[in-house]
Design a protein that fits this description.
By secondary structure, the chain is mostly beta strands. The chain is built from 1 helix and 22 strands. Helix content is about 5%, strand content about 40%. The longest helix is centred in the first third of the chain and has 11 residues.
Length: about 325
């Protein structure tokens, strides 16, 4: 039985592998041998995404083999520093061997008796030192594969910290899956853009009547989480002299998802927003808005941004913009 550890991938194939990995300096390994059935031997991550909390303590990475040869198959798993928003120390890899733009997380080895579907695992310690931070992603790829090639699931993202329940940055150039309900026929929420940045915006100026428009998330399941928080960015311009706060934030657990929101019960959490824009279309972060109330722990939770105006002209309307709406839990 020959081990092809001395052979290198063709330059084009290697370049593609490095592009997929997203990290210069990674070596995807040797050419695969053939299984006894004549099909190519491959290894893959068992999944492409894992989400865990900081308190999980450890995370297990599973690697599977398909069509193994009658020979040992092995692969090194690397933390891809260049494409990760975490740091190596978050996975206990701060002192690990540096490889190109990555850190060695460990090696998996399949014996020559392995069959298709066999799994090998690596367990890493979660050592995130900053509490209650937003979700961050650590990316893992393969390096130095012997007697197999890398299969379709060649990249694993492990999200640690707060777990993202909902996120909308409007860069898809639409409001979906958020929905709009206009209680009046005044100007309501719509998609806006500025220098390539898309956002949800509302401006009553020039409308047929005063505005009362709701921008509402889809139903969010809070039952599997705790310590839920909402964050968003907000910008405004002009001032509505008739209303102290034209933009309000509300939460409901009995909204039906499509009807007039004013026919349902909503809890206003506007006073939990730490920062509102003071004008000039200058964006400010809202700060973390606590949604962990017992009354919000339900299978269907809706978060809404209600925009109102006292009129339709200068001094009785203002422009509001909302972006990067994120709800996370733990």
């Amino acid at each position: 039985m020959s081990i092809l550890s001395s052979l290198r991938l063709p330059a084009l194939f290697l370049a593609v592998a490095l592009l997929v990995a997203g990290c210069d300096g990674f070596d995807s390994g040797t050419l695969p041998t053939q299984s006894t059935g004549g099909e190519e031997a491959t290894i893959s991550f068992a999944t492409d995404n894992i989400s865990i909390t900081e308190e999980s303590g450890t995370v297990t990475i599973e690697v599977t083999v398909t069509n193994p040869p009658n020979d040992t198959v092995s692969a090194e798993v690397l933390y891809a520093d260049g494409t990760s928003s975490t740091s190596p120390s978050d996975f206990g890899l701060g002192s690990s061997r540096n490889v190109g733009n990555g850190y060695a997380a460990g090696r998996v080895v399949f014996p020559d008796t392995a069959t298709t579907g066999n799994t090998q695992t690596l367990t890493l310690d979660i050592a995130d030192g900053e509490e209650n931070e937003p979700q961050e992603d650590g990316v893992f790829v393969f390096q130095n594969v012997t007697n197999a090639s890398v299969g379709a699931t060649n990249r694993l993202t492990i999200a640690i910290g707060a777990i993202e329940i909902f996120f909308k940055d409007f860069q898809q150039e639409n409001l979906s899956p958020m929905s709009v309900f206009n209680v009046t026929s005044g100007n309501g929420w719509g998609l806006g853009s500025n220098d390539g940045n898309f956002y949800a915006g509302a401006n009553a100026f020039g409308g047929s009547e005063t505005s009362n428009s709701w921008l509402i998330t889809p139903a969010l399941n809070f039952n599997n989480f705790e310590d839920e928080t909402l964050t968003f960015r907000n910008a405004k311009n002009f001032d509505d002299g008739g209303l102290e706060q034209p933009l309000q934030v509300k939460v409901s657990t009995n909204y039906d998802g499509s009807g007039n929101p004013e026919n349902f019960e909503w809890t206003e959490v506007t006073n939990r927003v730490q920062n509102f824009s003071e004008g000039g279309y200058n964006y400010v972060p809202s700060g973390e808005i606590d949604l962990s109330d017992t009354q919000f722990q339900a299978e269907e939770v809706y978060v809404a941004f209600q925009y109102r105006s006292s009129g339709t002209g200068g001094g009785s309307s203002e422009a509001q913009q909302v972006d990067d709406v994120r709800v996370v839990g733990r």
